[in-house]
User: Fold this.
Amino acid sequence: MWLLAVVGCGRLGFDAHGDGGGDGAGPDAPDVGYFIGPGGDDANPGTRHAPWRTITAAVPRLVPGDRLTLLDGDYDIRAVGLFDVDCMTVMNGTAAAPIVVRADHPRRARLFNGGRMIDLQHCAYWEFDDLFLDGQDDMTNTLGDVATLYNDDHVTVRGLLVRHANRYNNNYCVDVGHSTNMLVEDVETYECFRGGFSDYDSTGSIYHRIYSNGRGIADAVGGYTSTCPGGDTGLLSYYSRAATIEDAIFEDACDAGLAITAGSVATGDTGVGDNHSITNVITLGPSADGLLIASHCNTAQPCSTPDRYCSNNRISNSVAFGTSNGFHVQGVNNTLDHLTSIGVTGNAIQLDVETPAALATASAMVGSTLAVDGKVGFLAVSQTNWSFAQVDAFQTMTAFSPNDNHISGGMTLDPQLGNCTAVLPPGSPMIGAGVGGTNLGADIRTLASTGAPAWKPAWAGCGAVVAGVNDDPSTSCIGVHARLGVGAGCPQP
Assistant:
C-alpha cells in the first residue's frame, strides 16, 4: 500500500487563499461544507465525522457557495471517481459564491490510479485547492491531462502537487484550454513528459508561483512521441492572449523552459501569442531555449497577418541559466528588459525569424540585460526595427552581432556575480548600470505577485513536501535555490 507522509505543510507563510488566515486547511478550519473520506459512505450526511465516500456521488450535490473537503488519505479514482465535471449538467459557482474543492491538509489527499484526475468543462467560479494528483501511464484510456480545464471561466487551481502525465497520448500535467480569466498558482508539477503546464487558445490566464521539473523523463515504449526526451516544456502557451506569468521556475525541460507560440498555417492552426506579461521567470537546465517566443508562418510568407505571429509581449526581470539559448524571440514589437542569461552554450539573446522571409517587420527592443557565457551575447537576424540599450556581454565568443548603431551603451564588463544567478550581489558593477539608472540584469528579490521576499532561502513558491515526490532537494522545488546559488555562495537577498 502506498503510504503518504507530508514532511511540511503550507506555503512557507503565504496566505495563498487570500483570506488572512494561512492556508485555511486542517482541524482548526470550521467544519463547514461537505466531506469525503476514504472510509466514508455515500449514505452518510457528508459531514467531517460521517463523510461521503465517492467523488461521483458528491459532485452533483454541489451548489454555489459549497465547499467539498477531501479528508487525508488515498482516493483510487477507479473506485471513487474523478472530478469529471461538465457545467452543462451541474452547477456553476458565482463570483460571490464559488464552488470549492479542497484537501483538509495541503497535499494529504492523494488521487491515484488513472491518467486524468480533474476534467472540468464549461464551468465558472470553481476552485481546486491543495490536492495531490498522482498520475500514471494508461494504455487503455490514453486521453487525459492530469488536470484538464477546458472552456472554463474564472476557475482557480491552487496549491496542487501533480506528478506524471500519461505518456500514451499528448498529455500535460495541467492543461488550460479555450478558457478565460483562469488562475493557477502555488502549483508544482513533476515528471510531465510533454510539459508541466499548457495554456491553449485562452485569454487572461494568470500563473503565479508555479514550478515544473521534467526530471529527464523518457517517452514510454509504444507511447506518444514527445519533442525530445526529458519533459518538453515547463509551460507552453500557444495561441493564447494576455497571460500573466509571474514568479515561475521551469527546470529540466528539454525543448524550452517557457514557450509562447502563435499559429501554424501548415497544420491549420491560427492563433495569436500576444500581450503576455512575463516577470520573475527562471528557466534552468538543458533546454534548447530558456524562454522562446515563436511565430509560426511556415508556407505563408511573409507572415503578414497578426494571428500567426507573436507581438507586444514583455519579458522582464527573468533568468535563463544553463540552457542552450537563453532568450530566443521571434515576432513584432516584443520588449525584453532586465534579463540575465548565464551559463548558456548557444546564444544568450537571439532575435530572429522562422525563415528569412517569414516576417516583413520583425521587431524587438532589449534593454538593461546581461549576457554571461555563450556564443553570441546579443544577436539580431532579419530585424527591421530593433535595439540593444545598456546591455553587457561578458565571456561570450562574440559580444554583439551586428555591432552597429542599433546598440547603445553596449559593454563587455565582468558583472562580478560570484555564484549568483538570479540576484545581483553587493558590489556588482551591474547595480545602477541599466537604462535610467536601474540595475542591469535580473535581480529577483521579491515576488512580483505579492511583494513578499522571494527566498527564505528556499524559493517562496514551494509548497507542502510529500515524501517520495518532492522531498529530494536535488530534483525538487525545495532545493532549487541552491542550484541558483542563493544561500550557497551567493548571499541570500
About this structure: DSSP finds three helices and 36 strands in the chain. The radius of gyration is 23 Å. The CA atoms of residues 54 and 80 lie 4 Å apart. Confidence is low (pLDDT under 50) at residues 6-28.
